[in-house]
Automatic annotation (TrEMBL):
Coiled coil: none annotated. It comes from Gossypium raimondii. It is an enzyme of class 3 (hydrolase). The chain crosses the membrane at residues 12-31. Residues 366-452 form the X8 domain. It is a lipid-anchor; GPI-anchor. GO terms for biological process: carbohydrate metabolic process; defense response. Its main location: membrane. This is glucan endo-1,3-beta-D-glucosidase. SUPFAM superfamilies: (Trans)glycosidases. PROSITE patterns: GLYCOSYL_HYDROL_F17 (PS00587). One of its GO terms (cellular component) is side of membrane.
Length: 484
């Protein structure tokens, strides 16, 4: 006779089910703002709600953004950018001010459901040359102390979103996972502090980057369809890179005495343009595969159970640095103007489809193109294209990208138009010396995915409106009459 009765089993089942529902409520998403024309916060919050996102991760603590998230119930991770780490890490007063202004005020006055503070963003990336190594932990500690002092420590947890290269495997398998040798001590200091603060480890995992940086990477292993030949780790089979990567971290934590530290996947996604492997088909396959993979709450061999994850990203950001690659500006599941890029069932809407942004305000339907009469070898053409591409966005023109098949006229026109739209269709932004003209005929090719965009209306923010928008004659006269 076993010691568990049927009734007990039902109860255990219910408890497990409850814990699953309690510990993870749906899927989260990243909301980045490195865009020349960000959508207004109310449009973005509506987009989040319409698509049933219950959690959002921010990279800073913009006042309007947070205020707009108030009363929505959406769980918010606010961020401290890397360039503020030295300030909050160097002074307890600065950390307390940051918490008062960017956490307390929003919780108490604006009813924002802040749950995490992300201290820095991938501060240990090798490209930063160790600039943030010394100040990340002091910043984490000061912010945690400030949260405790302000009485938020039960609701708001600290964390540090880290790149997956902070750990590695000594034997090529997850079981060989440990923290990178050059930052081992600092990682243990951070992990120990997170553990003492009942706070999670946050990691960003990118199978796309593995494929991008290693041409021999087995493509199928990046996806979740089970078509890859599994990799055996002492008998444990891994069918996809995500599981293997997460478990490498789980092993690293276990090896160092933190087997139970919760893990959050801070960023996961696939870009749709800017590289031959970045397209809507692969992005859909990856993101849908990931949603199905986590929806059953199965987890990974080392971490069975629900996975807490934030998709990267909600929308495209056209001002991101392309140092890592041209794909950087194309991570959105929605375009820069909030339109769904491909079918994706997040399991959060009644229709099972993504719902595009509502009420988006566009500029006029007009484009800047190369004059058809101009010769391709006109000496003004090349410098004009370099200028336009340098300041606008030509990441859709390379090999294997959405506009990679344009002819030379299309290519040049694409660059001109990008610059023109980014500059709000100002007349002088289509005055490449004698070689450009404005047209009302859409130059986008009829077949394929290449699109010559029309920009959206600029949004200046509630506080910056009068400061940044040039005053029209009526406003000047109005202000003048008020002064009198
Ligand atoms: C609050 O966050 C914003 C946005 O990240 C930042 O500019 C500001 O300096 C922070 N406030 C304080 C008092 O640190
Ligand atoms: C890191 O070092 C390299 C080479 O010394 C340099 O080119 C790069 O600008 C540095 N990056 C940062 C963020 O300091
Ligand atoms: C179009 O532009 C891209 C990127 O600037 C370049 O690599 C490509 O060769 C150009 N194609 C044509 C047909 O000019
Ligand atoms: C533009 O064309 C006009 C007339 O053909 C010519 O006089 C002028 O020098 C050209 N400007 C430039 C910058 O090439």
């Amino acid at each position: 006779m076993g010691w568990v009765t049927v009734a007990d089993r039902v109860n255990i089942g219910l408890v497990c089910l409850f814990m699953m529902l309690w510990s993870v409520s749906g899927i989260g998403v990243n909301w980045g703002t490195q865009a020349s024309h960000p959508l207004p916060p109310d449009t973005m919050v509506r987009l989040l709600r319409d698509n049933g996102f219950q959690r959002v991760k921010l990279f800073d603590a913009d006042y309007d953004t947070l205020k707009t998230l108030g009363k929505t119930g959406i769980e918010v991770m606010v961020g401290i950018p890397n360039d503020m780490l030295a300030i909050v890490g160097g002074s307890m007063k600065a950390a307390e001010k940051w918490v008062a202004k960017n956490v307390t005020q929003h919780i108490t006055s604006n009813n924002v459901n802040i749950r995490y503070v992300a201290v820095g963003n991938e501060p240990f990336l090798e490209t930063y040359n160790g600039s943030y190594l010394g100040i990340t932990f002091p910043a984490l500690r000061n912010i945690q102390l400030a949260l405790v002092k302000a009485g938020h420590n039960n609701q708001v947890k600290v964390t540090v979103p880290l790149n997956a290269d902070v750990y590695e495997s000594t034997n090529g398998s997850p079981s060989g996972g440990d923290f990178r040798a050059d930052i081992h001590d600092i990682m243990l200091t951070i992990v120990n502090f997170l553990s003492l603060s009942s706070a999670p480890f946050t990691v960003n995992i990118y199978p796309f980057i593995s494929l991008y940086s290693d041409p021999n990477f087995p493509v199928e292993y990046a996806f979740f369809d089970g078509n890859a030949s599994p990799v055996s780790d002492g008998g444990t089979l891994y069918y996809n890179m995500f599981d293997a990567n997460l478990d490498t971290l789980a092993h690293a934590l276990q090896k160092n005495g933190f087997a139970d530290l919760p893990i959050i996947v801070g960023e996961i996604g696939w870009p749709t343009d800017g590289d031959r492997n970045a397209n809507t088909e692969y992005a859909r396959r990856f993101n849908q595969g990931f949603m199905s993979h986590i929806s059953g709450g199965r987890g990974t061999p080392m971490r069975p159970g629900p996975i807490d994850a934030y998709l990267f990203s909600l929308i495209d950001e056209d001002s991101k640095s392309i140092a890592p690659g041209n794909f950087e500006r194309h991570w959105g599941i929605f375009t820069f103007d909030g339109q769904a890029k491909y079918p994706l069932n997040l399991g959060t809407t009644n229709s099972g489809a993504l719902i595009s942004a509502k009420g988006v305000q566009y500029l006029e339907r007009k484009w800047c193109v190369m004059k058809p009469s101009v010769r391709l070898d006109d000496p003004q053409v090349e410098p004009s294209v370099s200028f336009a591409c340098g300041l606008a966005d030509c990441t859709c023109l390379g090999y294997g990208t959405s506009c990679g098949n344009l002819d030379a006229w299309g290519n040049i026109s694409y660059a001109f138009n990008s610059y023109f739209q980014k500059n709000n269709q100002r007349e002088d932004a289509c005055k490449f010396p004698n070689v450009s003209m404005i047209t009302k005929a859409d130059p986008s090719p009829r077949d394929g995915n290449c699109k010559f965009n029309i920009m959206i209306q600029p949004y200046y923010g509630s506080a910056g409106w009068y400061a940044r928008k040039p005053l029209g004659l009526t406003s000047v006269l109005l202000i003048f009459s008020l002064v009198l």
